[in-house]
Amino acid sequence: MWMVSPPVGDFQSTKKLFLSERTGQGRSWSRALEFIRKNAANGLSVANLVAGFSSILCSLNRQHHHSCWLLLVGFLLDLADGAVARRLDACSALGAKLDDFADFTTFGLATALLLQPHGVLSGALALTYVLAVFARLCFFSSGIPFTYRGLPCPYASSLVAGTFLLSGGNVTLLRVTAGIMILFMLDRGSYPHDKVLESQLWKKVVYAGGVAAVLFSPATVASIYCLAWSMSYIVFPFAIWSCKA
Questions:
Q1: 74 contacts 55 by C-beta, under 8 angstroms
Q2: pTM score, two decimals?
Q3: DSSP of 52-94, one letter per residue?
Q4: What is the pLDDT of residues 17-44, one digit of tens each?
């Protein structure tokens, strides 16, 4: 009677190969999760950038209603990316530069095109608005923790877009609003870092309401909501929106 012994060497090799494959898969998943953690906030900044470029294209094609909606989406994305970066401990120099570039595109260039610059004066106003956003992004630091100098450009853009939607595209009113926002951005007055998603519960509720209003509500409701939100930040910055309020 013949006895067949098990191929021990082959079994051990197969076992090692299987274990190494599982280890490799585990490491791949770990690397993938780490990549997602480090770049989640950057992904939101890129989404903001895409919203800005899309808004520019809509304005060039005279689809200003869609352009305003994209600006409001960018406003919500901008409020989220910093919170996500800090929550995941993924702040980086690249993320800061990407956020500034996205902000300049969405809240500077795209918002200025809403002013419909067809003449010399309107063109000068649009150019001044872009330069005001540029200056605001370059010199926002106040030296005081959690405090900015000049009105943050996302709030200015939100107010301009809300005004456009609520007024039915009244260009004169829009340009007056933009002129006022330029003064606020260059005023160098103090504004708090609101930290909407990292502060009191009611601020998170306000943000969730903004998401619902922009994505699921009629344009009138979304514009009124964002106008009220931006105006409250401009008029009562520290009384309401300071992270210590």
A1: yes
A2: 0.84
A3: HHHHHHHHHTT-HHHHHHHHHHHHHHHHHHHHHHHHTT---HH
A4: 555 556 656 566 777 667 676 777 888 9
